[in-house]
Write a structure and sequence with these properties.
three-stranded antiparallel β-sheet; 462 residues; alpha+beta
């Protein structure tokens, strides 16, 4: 029988004996070396042997050596399951704070529940039941050049309910990972973000708030990838997400970023995916979407939510030249609402023009740094005129200007070339970490836009 070198203090003699029995069984089964244990603790194999966890919050580990010693962490975790001591940032007993570990070890070691303390995890149960989880959807807002953390896109996950419709989906909850950046970060923001100077935390928000942030305010297209997970995998995902709410990671813009740790969550939900194994140096959100979409059978459907500006652009394309001019005049002069050009239109066309004019004024009011007060007044007048037309707005499908992100090229590139300049010929080698330039195929990327990361060229003149 194996006994740890440090005191156990698990309770009375019977609990002490059962803990030693469980530790011995875990050693015989070599559980500390199993992939799922490493996924739960976020261990990565070191270059010269051994393991180090990517988790940076000491409260995530039950052992002082848990960050680098999977066996010590497993032993200490089993010990903590016999205690009601409050652990982690959420200050709960280990059975509840680290519920995914508890269920995995309970299944693998076949716990005798009568020999362990029976603890009710009411906080987790309420949190889990509030989701009414049925499936998971990967959400990808496109690149946003005004924010260094979102220059290459962003990903988060939506928890969908059974029977959810297109209209009610906006009310679903999401799981998001992001850095906490103080309001006065200033010039230190990109520097600290590059070198892990901020802590990253998992959080949950209603989806409509994220749509408002990314689509309505930041004017980004949103792509939704429905993942084909079983209900058991969805439960595993949420149990581990609950655990990660107990801790923080050091946030790195180009490696351990918003997308990377979401992949780790998906890996635990389905350990056969091996998603994080594909990103050893840097993690570009668009590449993670491409990887997930490439897994056979993983994506069951794709939906598109256009940005507000793209909705307006596509609606303008639907108008004749004279209607476009009339819609523009309406946003500047309310007198156009009684002009012959407008009054003589078919009521369905009037509705379409009023909807477009309102969309445009709202967009300008909410996205301009110094909006003009009269924009809101004009919009109210347009909405009043719209309410007098008892005709529902027609269904309008927006075709995206950029094709689906997973269809785009990979962001890293190595190339060789030759050329001629000022009567001299040359050969050139270029290596680029990311992302996209104007010479790349445009499919899957914002048209007429480019941004490059760590692009180095070496040129030899003859």
């Amino acid at each position: 029988m194996f006994f740890p070198t440090s005191p156990i203090n698990a309770g009375g003699p019977s609990e002490h004996a059962y803990l030693a029995e469980l530790i011995d069984k875990s050693l015989q089964a070599k559980l500390a070396g199993e992939r799922e244990w490493h996924l739960l603790l976020h261990y990565r194999e070191n270059l010269f042997g051994g393991y180090t966890s990517e988790q940076d919050d000491p409260g995530f580990f039950m052992s002082p050596n848990g960050k680098t010693d999977p066996q010590a962490e497993l032993d200490a975790t089993l010990k903590q399951f016999f205690s009601e001591e409050l652990v982690g940032r959420s200050r709960q007993p280990a059975q509840c704070a680290f519920i995914a570990r508890y269920h995995w070890l309970r299944e693998r070691l076949q716990f005798d529940d009568s020999r362990l303390p029976k603890l009710a995890c009411e906080r987790f149960d309420r949190w889990f039941n509030d989701f009414e989880a049925h499936s998971i959807t990967l959400i990808f807002p496109s690149a946003f050049l005004n924010n260094p953390a979102s220059m290459f896109g962003h990903t988060f996950l939506r928890i969908d309910q059974k029977g959810q419709t297109e209209q009610t989906r906006i009310l679903a909850q999401t799981v998001n990972y992001a850095a906490y950046v103080p309001p006065d970060a200033g010039l230190a923001y990109p520097i600290r973000g590059l070198f892990g100077g901020y802590s990253g935390y998992f959080s949950t928000y209603p989806y409509y708030l994220k749509v408002q942030e990314y689509r309505d305010i930041e004017n980004r297209d949103i792509w939704e990838y429905r993942l084909n997970f079983t209900e058991a995998q969805v439960r595993r995902f949420l149990m581990h997400a609950w655990e990660l709410g107990n801790a923080s990671f050091d946030y790195f813009f180009f490696k351990e970023n918003c997308s990377y740790h979401l992949l780790a969550l998906l890996d635990y939900a389905d350990p056969s995916l091996h998603l994080t194994d594909e990103f050893l140096v840097w993690t570009v959100p668009a590449d993670t979407v491409r990887l997930i979409a490439s897994k056979p059978g993983l994506v069951s459907g794709i939906d598109y939510r256009p940005s507000r500006s793209n909705v307006i652009r596509r609606k303008r394309e639907f108008l004749t030249a004279s209607e476009r001019e009339l819609a523009h005049r309406i946003t500047r002069d309310l007198g156009e609402l009684t002009s012959p050009a407008f009054v003589q239109l078919d009521p369905t066309r009037q509705v379409f023009l009023l909807d477009l004019a309102s969309d445009y004024l709202r967009y300008r009011s909410e996205t301009t740094d110094s909006p003009q007060p009269e924009w809101k007044e004009r919009n109210r007048a347009i909405l009043t005129a719209r309410s007098q037309l008892r005709i529902p707005s027609q269904e309008f499908t927006v075709v995206p200007f950029a094709k689906q992100p997973e269809l785009g090229h990979r962001t890293s590139r190595a190339s060789v070339g030759a050329g001629w300049r000022n009567n001299d010929t040359f050969e050139e080698v270029t290596v680029r970490a990311g992302y996209h330039d104007l010479l790349d195929p445009e499919i899957g990327y914002t048209p007429d836009a480019q941004i490059e990361l760590a692009s180095i060229s070496l040129r030899h003149y003859n």
